[in-house]
Amino acid sequence: MTEFVDLSYTIEAGISAYPGDDDLKLYQNRFLDKDKYNDTRLETGMHVGTHIDVASHIMKSNVVISDYPADKFFGKGCLLDVRNQDAIGIKDEYWDIVEESSIILLYTGFENKFGSAEYFKNHPVVEEELADLFIDKKIKMLGMDLPSPDQYPFSIHKKLLGNDILIIENLRNLGLLVNIEKFEVIALPLKIRAEASLARVVARVVSFK
Amino acid sequence: MTEFVDLSYTIEAGISAYPGDDDLKLYQNRFLDKDKYNDTRLETGMHVGTHIDVASHIMKSNVVISDYPADKFFGKGCLLDVRNQDAIGIKDEYWDIVEESSIILLYTGFENKFGSAEYFKNHPVVEEELADLFIDKKIKMLGMDLPSPDQYPFSIHKKLLGNDILIIENLRNLGLLVNIEKFEVIALPLKIRAEASLARVVARVVSFK
Prior knowledge:
CATH architecture of chain A: 3-Layer(bba) Sandwich
CATH topology of chain A: Glucose Oxidase, domain 1
CATH superfamily of chain A: Putative cyclase
Distance between the termini of chain A: 18 Å
Number of helices of chain A: 4
Shape of chain A: globular
Oligomer: homodimer
CATH class of chain A: Alpha Beta
Strand content of chain A: 25-35%
Largest interface: A-B, 59 and 59 residues
Order of helices and strands of chain A: EEHEEEEHEEHEHEEE
Number of strands of chain A: 12
Largest sheet of chain A: 7 strands, mixed, barrel
Radius of gyration of chain A: 17 Å
Strand order of the largest sheet of chain A: 4-10-9-7-5-11-12
Helix content of chain A: 10-25%
C-alpha cells in the first residue's frame, strides 16, 4: 500500500484565524432524529488552517484559485530543513536540489507553536534572495509550517504570487518527511471562486532514505 | 506532462444546495484598497456541489470525515457507462471489471440537468443488487454525476456507507473519461470534523484507449 503523510490541520471549531480575520464557525444544523440526516455548516474565510493563496489575495488581479488547472497542485516534493533560523536564507546547495515545477516545503519546526498567540508573531520569515531562487527555478508552490512567509507589508507574498508561485500556509507534520528520499506533494484546494482556499495537502511517499 | 480531468464543480455564489438544505453563500469581506488584502467568506453546508459523504450523514455513527486516513481518497478509477437507465442495475461484466479498493464512477449523463430543479428530482438511482456487488468487491468509494444514488428513505446511502463505501456526489465531466483506458481517482475532502465535506475530485490519466 502506498504511504501517505497528511500535512493538513483538522478544520474544527476553535481553530485560530489569522489576526484580523473573522473566526471560523463550524456547527451542526441538521439532526438525524429530527431531520432524518445530519449536516454541518461551515462559516469561514479562506485563510484559516491549511490553505493556499493566489495573487489576488494581496495584489490587484482577477485570477481566482478555481481558474488554475489541477496540474498546478501536484508536484515532486522537496523538503528544506530550515529549523532554528529566524530569517530563512539561501544556501549554495539549494541551486542543486530545488527543481523546476517542484513543490518546495520549508520545515521550520514552528508547528509546535500552532494554537498559541505566539504562532502568528515573531515567526521565521523567508529572505528576498531565497524567494528569488524559487522564482528563478520556476517552482509551482512554496509550502511551510508557518502562518505566512513574511510579515506586513508582505513583500515575499507579492514576490512569489506575482511570479505565479502559490503559497501553502499552515502545514503540519513536515518533520515526518525528513527520512523520506522521494515524495510527491498533492495540495488540493477546493475549486472555489476566491483568492485562496482551504486545502487538503498530503505527501505520497515514493521511496525512503 | 501528466493529464488531469477535473471532475469538480466550481463553488460560487448561486450554486444549488440539495432541497431542504440552507443555501451556500460566498462573498468578499476584506478589500485590498481598504484592508490591504482580499478575503472571501464561505458559508455552507457540506452537501453542496462536489462532495463526499460518510456514514454519520445518514446513520448513527461518531465517525467524521477527518477520521479517515488520506489513503481512502486515492484509488484506481473505473468508469461504468450507465447512460439512459432510470434504475442502474447489475451487469455480468461488472463482476470482472470492478476491482477491490477501486473507486467506481457511474456516468449517467445526468450532469446536463445540473443547475435546474429537475436535477434533484427523478434522477437515476442505484439498485440494491448493484450496491451489493460494490460491497462484495470492497470498493473504496462510489462517485456519480448525480445529487444522490437514491431518494428518500435513502436505503442505498445506508447500505454503502454502512459498509464503509464513501459516496461522491455531484461529479461532472465524466464523459471525458470514456476514452481513457486507465486512470487514478484523487478525491480529496477537507480534513474537517463533519459528516461530509466539499471535495476536489480529479482523475489522473495513466493511459488512453
